[in-house]
Each structure stands twice: as structure tokens, then as C-alpha cells.
Amino acid sequence: MNKDKLKGKIKENKFNYNILAKKLNIGYSTIKAKVNGKSAFNQPEMVLIRKHLRLSDAETIDIFF
């Protein structure tokens, strides 16, 4: 996972971890751990992140795979 690119996209969209966590229906500490690569995002979370951060196919692949 490209955590730096994900963090950049979060900032670019004027989100923070609290906002993204609420959109994914997970806690702050959980989103922080996932963004920092300590645990993995599941597929439904990836789909929601892609939707809310308006990621292109290439950005999605670069960030998550």
C-alpha cells in the first residue's frame, strides 16, 4: 500500500482521519492504523475510499495494490 499517496489524497480532498473514519463507519484509531499500514483495508472499505476521495482506476491501483 502506498500510504503517502493515500495521505496526500485525504488532504487534497480536505478530509482528515475523523471524517474518513465516519464515512467508513470505523473508529479513529482503526483508520489511523490502516492508513499507516499497520492493518489492511478490506474490499468494502477500499470501494468507499475510492468513492469519497474520487480516485481514478490508476490511483486506486497505485494506493492499494
List the helices and strands and how they pair.
Layout (H helix, E strand, L loop, with lengths): L2 H10 L4 H8 L3 H8 L7 H10 L4 H8 L1
Could you explain the architecture of this structure?
- The chain has 65 residues and is an all-alpha fold.
- 68% of the residues lie in helices and 0% in strands.
- The protein has five helices and no strands.
- It has helices spanning 3-12, 17-24, 28-35, 43-52, 57-64.
- The longest helix is centred in the N-terminal third of the chain and has 10 residues, at 3-12.
- The termini are close together.
Keywords:
5 helices, mainly alpha, single chain, 65 residues
Radius of gyration using CA atoms only: 10 Å
Distance between the termini: 6 Å
Number of helices: 5
Name the beta content range: under 5%
The computed structural class is mainly alpha
Summarize the structure.
The chain has 65 residues and is an all-alpha fold. It has helices at 3-12, 17-24, 28-35, 43-52, 57-64.
